[in-house]
Amino acid sequence: MATTTSSKARTVKAPQVKDQPLFINGRFVDSVSGKTFPAINPANGEVLCQVAEGDAADIDLAVKAARAALETGPWNRMDAADRGRLLYKLADLVEKNSEELAALESLNCGKTINDSRGDLQGVVNTLRYYAGWADKIEGRTVPVRGNFLSYTLRQPIGVVGQIIPWNFPLLMLAWKWGPALACGNTVVMKPAEQTPLTAMRMAELVMEAGFPNGVINLVPGYGETAGAALVRHPDVDKIAFTGHVDTAKLIQKSAADTLKRCTFELGGKSPNVIFADCDMEQAVAGAFHAIYFHGGQCCTAGSRLFVEEKIRQEFVERLAERSKQRKLGDPLSTETEQGPQVSQEQLDKILGYVKLGEKEGARLITGGQRWGNKGYYVEPTIFDNVKDEMAIARDEIFGPVVSVLPFKTMEEVVDRANRTYYGLAAAIWTKDIDKAHNYARQVKAGTVWVNCYHVVDTTTPFGGFKMSGQGRENGEAALEHYTEMKTVTIKLN
Ligand code: NAI
Ligand code: MG
Q: Would you put residue 454 in left (φ > 0), alpha (ψ -120 to 50) or beta?
């Protein structure tokens, strides 16, 4: 899978792709049913290759392998420090192959090569961060009443089912593998049906790193079949899911039958609040990045843009000017700023919301059309005069479509920002430190940015208030969701 790396080259060579099997118990295997599904290039809609389609039977084999690896394999007896070393090794291999992985990510997911390279750095950072945690997950001694010694142990939850989406295929994989493996769990992952290719390349690196068989298993397939089977499986101890709120509701209901632990990282309709006392240049650039990063296919997208009334007109004009200049095109070109949306389904959903916005009476300032005649591209789109109750201001569109909502006071904007069932991220642009801290304290969101946006680091907890999620990923916080706490009490004679 050679990539062109000469400094002159502006378009990275598309990697070669071949048909993909499943990865179960350290082996690359066909699905039990023999069925396959196509992996698509969203830049032109063409089929890249066929991928083995896992369903309930394959999930069962993968869960059995993960259970055996957990209970009886070398993973079970491995020193925590050695688990860490395997994660460091995997990080090194990802780093060594990062150009190839980035190109493959861009090919299958449509994100620009620059963004894919950024994601790959995040993957390496995440794996290294959790590698470092592996031998630092400690219990405590507890001063109990009576002549007893009580201490706590933090042990793996067990077999963990992980279901990830298509917007950050490799980064979501790393966010889920890192803490799970550092804590000693074993994993059955179902990548998104739209973007299985980089996950399957990771399986090869897992082998090369030397993870014992069955510790990591990958079963590509559809949500309603493979995903649902993983959630239902009685021998899976926990589900970690990233995706749509409605899917999470289905998962939580199904997981109730076996009382599985669940963590969710879901969507958002994040308020990005611009005060008149901001640095206008930086705030325009920030609002632009907040909504258009990865074509708006980002759970933290700054899709509700609250602008203080007295600067609204100038702000919208400057944002529109920039939007018109955004360079859409081949994701593999280093000059491209925005690639295609991931699928026909997403393209249709986004254009449907644009129509709805116009029908609801919002003012379309720029964009609103499909771009080009092949692939799933959408023009950067701005709606002004949006009202809080319109669907485009309430629903997650997951595309490059921003709603501008004017406001006058802090009290008003905090109240309106919080009037949503989401609570993933929020931002404020101001030079007034009091405003910044007051907003940060009052806004209901798992992440708050002041004079910046989309700054996410593997060291800091990430997750949602309200219906944007349950639990936290990244940072030390994630470890809690991958360990069981055990109390041991010894009578001292
Ligand atoms: P989705 O929630 O259906 O898919 C995410 C993952 O869940 C995929 O791996 C899928 O196969 C799996 N899945 C689907 N149904 C399942 C089920 N019944 N049981 C178990 N697993 C299941 O999201 P989808 O359909 O790809 O996108 C729809 C919308 O969801 C997007 O337009 C966006 O609004 C939102 N979304 C949010 C993401 C986030 O980062 N929070 C990521 C992707 C989508
Ligand atoms: Mg879906």
A: left
pLDDT digits (tens, 9 = 90+) for 468-485: 999 999 999 999 999 999
Say how far residue 225 (Cα) sits from the centre of its chain: 21
The answer to whether residue 299 is catalytic is yes
Q: 411-426 burial, b for 16+ CB within 10 Å, e for fewer?
A: eebbebbbebebbbbb
CB 174 within 8 A of CB 240: no
CB of 350 closer than 6 A to ligand 1? no
- Indicate if ligand 1 lies below 6 Å from the C-beta of 165: yes
- DSSP for residue 390: S
The pLDDT score that the predictor gives to residue 7 is 52
Taking the centre of ligand 2 as the mean of its atom positions, its distance from the CA of residue 245, in whole angstroms, is: 10
- What is the CB neighbour count within 10 angstroms for residue 457? 12
Tens-digit pLDDT profile for residues 19-68: 999 999 999 999 999 999 999 999 999 999 999 999 999 999 999 999 99
Q: Which amino acid is at 469?
A: G
Residue 383: what are its φ and ψ, rounded to 5°?
-110, 130
Antiparallel, parallel or unpaired: β 148-156 and 483-491: antiparallel
Block residue for tokens 């304290």: 441
Distance CA 89, CA 243 (A): 29
As a whole number of angstroms, the distance between CA 387 and CA 357 comes to 10
Residue 183 a catalytic site member: no
Buried b (16+ CB within 10 A) or exposed e, 99-131: bbbbbbbbbbbbbbbbbbbbbbebbbbbbbbbb
